[in-house]
Amino acid sequence: MTTSTSPAEVTVDPDAYLQVRDLKVQFPTEDGLVRAVDGVTFSVRRGQTLGIVGESGSGKSVTSMSILGLHNPARTKISGEISIGGTNIVGMKEEQIQRLRGKDVAMIFQDPLSALHPYYKVGVQIAEAYKVHHPKASKKEAMTRAVDMLDRVGIPEPQRRANQYPHEFSGGMRQRAMIAMALVNDPALLIADEPTTALDVTVQAQILELLEDLQEEFHSAIIMITHDLGVISQVADDVLVMYGGRPVETGSVEQIMKRPQHPYTWGLLASVPSLHGDAGADLVPIKGNPPSLINLPTGCAFNPRCRYAGTNGNLSFTERPELRSAGEAGHMLACHLSAENRQRIYAEDIAHAGVAQ
Amino acid sequence: MTDLADSAASGGTLTTPVSEPLLKVEGLTKHYPVRGGFFGTKQFVRAVENVSFDVRPGESLGLVGESGCGKTTTGRMLVRLLESTSGKITFQGEDITHAKGTRLRNLRQDIQIIFQDPYSSLNPRHTVGKIVAMPLQVNGITPPGGVKKRVQELLDTVGLNPEHYNRYPHEFSGGQRQRIGIARALALQPKLIVADEPVSALDVSIQAQVINLLRRLQKDLGLSFVFIAHDLAVVRHFCERIAVMYRGEMVEIGTREEIYERPSHPYTQALLSAVPDVTKIGRTKRIKPEGDVR
Amino acid sequence: MFRFLIKRLLLASTTLVAISIVTFLLFFAVPSSPAWVMCGRNCSPERIAQVEQSLGLDQPITKQYTDFVQGIFVGRTIDDAGTIRECEAPCLGYSFRSKEPVTDTITRSLPITVSIVGGAMVIFLTVGVGLGMLAALKKGTVFDRVAIGASVGFASTQTYTLGGVLLLVLVYSTGLLPNPHYTPITENPLDWASGMLLPWITLGLINSAMYARLSRAQMIETLQEDFVRTARAKGLSPGVVNRRHALRAAITPIVTIAGVDLGAYLGGVVITESVFSLNGIGREAAQAVTDLNLPIVMATVLLAAFFIVTMNIIVDMLYAVIDPRVRLG
């Protein structure tokens, strides 16, 4: 259980490797204060995968960047707590965070072509990542380690490949190289920000499999950030659904995918076409557009797009819902709908559309 | 019953008899020359190789495959943005493979294209009204009731506020911009729309809005579609027939049921098994395609 | 690489030949004869004919051109009002004004231009690029604003304004610096530098402004690249990220522009040379045009073209060395 400053009932696993409590990330701009992340609490144990789902502007990528301490402190206001292996990095000095980055926490990005430096050989880039955290290692040792890692992530002829430039790799191979670079220091936490979005579906399957195999081997914690619910259901143990910079629903992958409770999660599930079920049925889209983070709707941020807003009096428009238990242990929800209403609506409106069927 | 038989017999009012395909593609091929070797010997990239299919009136044909499979090149050849190397494209019984001048312009009225990126395909300096009216003006068409009225009808059709006639693209969200692109494509009342990844740049919740809109247009206006996409679930939802492409060739074509329930080509099977299934939790078994590591 | 070089060299020589022909034709399209200019106002037609004959201007254009080309490769003999002179290859002709082979004019004036441009380049590549990069790293700070403000100011200043003011303040009023002059570096390096200081500062500062803004924009763009984020995510220190990852990528287009600029400037910096009364290539060329001194015009035009074409080839090859994605062919 958490301290009383966190919203009621939100639990943080005290043994978890990563513990994030009431994280807020704000960017002051000329147009106003951007509340990119506005109070999010979660934790990930080693060997476990947390999926963070959301659309553009949901705050999912900003959350991951702040775990690496990558935001410019001069232009960002961060509050709350990010505890990595027992160390809170919020407010830590840049030099200290540097020692964690790439060693305890590593990250892979969406587009491996732009994420790798075009002028340096792949092996050199991986060796550099190793050498930063192993200053005593010789150049040759670092290079040997880089080739080993390329081999480990399934790149054939790693010796030759290490001497090539990123543009000489295919998309899938590049993402493998990115993963090799992220894992070169055996990080305890790996953040994957849309790692397969830019890849073809067959390559995506290989990369996801690789990540799972490596997780088993290295016993690392993984945060998988994606908009693809299929990817989430394949790799995640727990899921955090974000909207407008705040968590709206969180729970185990079973709870979120099979028994979703929040109208936004319903919307996501109902609007995604599926490979099964009635192809002739219309999808049920979420009306409207994602909100601006400068000017969030008052009350529940989702209320302009929620077809059930107002069901429970005026609450949706006046009061921001906090995360509360959705019934089952570990399943949390920020919604004004009553439990009976949610069950009735889910049974009547949602269960037959899109992938939710 | 007799009425139906009569109208079928005197079917002169129909431009295309129902049995005839609207679009017929035979052996379509596109080779790009690349220079290779020390002496600059000519070599070719076989972007599209011997692709054949047809699209019936009111039908939506899906073209799926991974990057570099030639689906986009095929689409561009259909709307004659690219010249084919060989093969034949027949539209309404007329060979349009090398149509030029006036014929090409008339053809452009009947076959329209929607692009993937709703941001770069609209001129940021033109108002929405101007963008949607452009195809009318270019073709010198004055619709009954005037251009403005027609444009406002089109905006209404695609679910945009007709009052937003004078706004600029940047004032709209991604999904709305894609609607503007659709309104522009509809301006000339085309018979066939080639949609190249029309929803892949959009947020998940917005994709469904646009897919539903396209489905409604197909039903209401009797449009035919060639729907190009990499997302197999989206294609399944939108298309009655699907062609699967791999390395420039069409490896399988069939009805939705045939492709999704009983895929016969190993590549189709591999492709389908690679899609993460939302309804199944945990790792799914997949069929590995040959030459696995790419 | 080899294929590329051969191709580019062929193209370059074609360009140079084309430029020489066009210059020749333009020169003869001018409704005035060099003989008039040389002979002065009250010149009898007989005298003009005599001068024209000695200049070879009575010959057909094609003959004059082939003579010129022959001079470059094998040398030629020149008849200067009865005096026969041997002009050895590479002979760019004979200047009847200064009574010397053109090659002498060039070898005298080129070192001056090279000295001016070289020094100025050191200034704008260090001061300009350095300031721009620093401003990008400190984007939005007072330093950034001052640097950008100053660069806008200098960029909108003309060489003759800045040069004139500097001359007035540093030379004429205070006497802090000697009047700009040229002493070969081999004779007295210190005197060479002090004589060149003003042109260096003038040309250097004005170009620094342009290079500062360019480098700042380039660096800001690069700092937002994904690979810079990756470098930071590895745990590299900001210094290493900026130098090894950002700077390396940001500098590439600047190298290109600097190379092309160098090629253009070596052909003569007319205004700078004129403001400080230094007889570099640019000033000789400008003078030759007013004098209708064809041999000098031809030589300076060809020299300028040669520098530009050569620098372009070098820049392209350099680009392939810096950026592994660029393949020449």
Question: Please, could you describe this protein's structure?
Answer:
- The complex is a heterotrimer of chains A (357), B (294) and C (329).
- Chain A has 357 residues and is α/β, with parallel strands linked by helices.
- Among the domains of chain A are: 114-186, no CATH class; 259-356, no CATH class.
- Chain A is built from 13 helices and twelve strands.
- Chain A has helices at residues 60-67, 94-100, 112-115, 122-133, 139-152, 158-162, 171-183, 201-218, 229-235, 253-258, 263-271, 315-318, 339-350; strands spanning 18-29, 32-44, 49-53, 77-84, 87-88, 105-108, 189-193, 221-226, 238-243, 246-252, 324-325, 332-333.
- In chain A, the strands form two sheets. An eight-stranded mixed sheet of chain A has the order 6-7-8-3-9-10-12-11, with helices on both faces. A four-stranded antiparallel sheet of chain A has the order 2-1-4-5, covered by helices on one side.
- The radius of gyration of chain A is 21 Å and the shape is globular.
- Chain B has one domain (17-274): P-loop containing nucleotide triphosphate hydrolases (Rossmann fold), CATH 3.40.50.
- In chain B, α5 (147-157) crosses α6 (174-186) and α6 (174-186) packs parallel to α7.
- Chain B has 294 residues and is an alpha/beta fold.
- A two-stranded antiparallel sheet of chain C has the order 1-2. In chain C, strands 3-4 form a two-stranded antiparallel sheet.
- In chain C, α8 crosses α10.
- Chains in contact: A-B, A-C.
- At the A-B interface, α7, α8, α9, α10 and α11 of A face α7, α8 and α10 of B.
* Overall SS class of chain C: mainly alpha
Overall residue-averaged pLDDT value of chain C: 87
Outline of chain A = globular
Quaternary structure = heterotrimer
Query: What's the helix-strand series of chain C?
Result: HHHHEEEEHHHHHHHHH
Overall tally of domains of chain C: 2
Main sheet: strands, sense, barrel of chain C:
2 strands, antiparallel
Question: What is the rounded distance between the termini of chain C?
Answer: 7 Å
Biggest sheet overview of chain A: 8 strands, mixed
Question: Roughly what percent helix of chain A?
Answer: 25-40%
Radius of gyration of chain A, whole Å: 21 Å
Instruction: Pick out the low-confidence regions of chain C.
Output: none
Task: Please give the count of helices of chain A.
Answer: 13
**What pattern of helices and strands is seen along the backbone of chain A?**
EEEHEEHEHHHHHEHEHEEHHHEEH
User: In order across it, which strands form the biggest sheet of chain A?
Assistant: 6-7-8-3-9-10-12-11
The largest chain-to-chain contact, stated as pair and per-chain residue counts, equals: A-B, 53 and 44 residues
End-to-end Cα distance of chain A: 35 Å
Number of strands of chain C: 4
Please list the strands of the largest sheet of chain C in the order they lie side by side.
1-2
How big a fraction of the residues of chain C is strand? under 5%
